[in-house]
Amino acid sequence: MKKVTRNHYKEMFAILMMVSMSLAMTPVAAFAQTETGQITVKAVDPQGAVVPGAAVSVKSTTWRV
User: Fold this and answer.
1) b/e per residue, 22-47, with b = 16+ CB within 10 A?
2) Three-class SS of the chain
């Protein structure tokens, strides 16, 4: 059986500290999932003219909101 030296413990501690610091510096947001989007609407009448001030409503068919 190989004898464990004090130097071996120092190396293991250094490796453990590097891994710990790397994980601590990883942004938490990297693990989060965000869903963002953008909807652009151009309301036009049957002749193709823009309808100013038109109201638009959007409904999610997946989440029913």
Assistant:
1) eeeeeeeeeeeeeeeeeeeeeeeeee
2) CCCCCHHHHHHHHHHHHHHHHHHHHCCHHHHCCCCCCCCCCCCECCCCCECCCCCCCCCCCCCCC
Q: Hey, CA dihedral for 47, 51, 57, 61, is it positive or negative?
A: positive
Q: Which of 31, 51, 53 is nearest to 43 (CA)?
A: 51
pTM for this prediction: 0.37
pLDDT in tens, the chain (65 residues): 677 777 888 889 999 999 988 888 776 656 666 677 788 888 999 999 999 889 988 887 777 65
